[in-house]
């Protein structure tokens, strides 16, 4: 894995996307072990994103308790102290938007997550979350417009914009 991370970084690719359900969390563990075992990889040179909210055997869960526990598990598996971006992986029909807002606030204040967003949400679902989230959701970026891969060298202004604002991702 170290070789792949180094190759990506050498090509200017520093955005790494994960989800707690990919490989049952094993993909995050492998990435985290590679980062920990290699003193030449610097966390501050990477943008690490993960997603949560899909709960095997239950379907979806965006409760405050589940979101906070998910992030704690993600951070442990990735061997990092913070995520640059956390996305709600899928909409939850039973979502309590107040709980999502409370979880986001707690995760941000604790320094565990810098930026929040959504994946696979429809505009009305985003509007519901926005009503309860205290942040000013500045921008909606449809997935097709999100530059991939993000290269710190080629997209520095765009990357700074993402890391400096709360950004919504929609599909």
Shape: elongated
Strand order of the largest sheet: 1-2-5-6
Task: Compute the number of strand runs.
Answer: 8
Instruction: Classify the secondary structure makeup into a structural class.
Output: alpha/beta
- The share of residues in helices is 25-40%
Q: Are there runs of 5+ residues with pLDDT below 50, and where?
A: 137-156, 162-171
Beta content comes to: 15-25%
Largest sheet: 4 strands, parallel
What would you report as the Rg, rounded to the nearest angstrom?
Answer: 16 Å
Distance between the termini: 29 Å
* SSE string: HEHEEEHEHEHEHE
Task: Tally the helices.
Answer: 6
What is the average per-residue confidence, as pLDDT, rounded to a whole number? 80
Summarize the entry for a quick read.
The protein is 39% helix and 19% strand. The protein has 171 residues and is an alpha/beta fold. The radius of gyration is 16 Å and the shape is elongated.
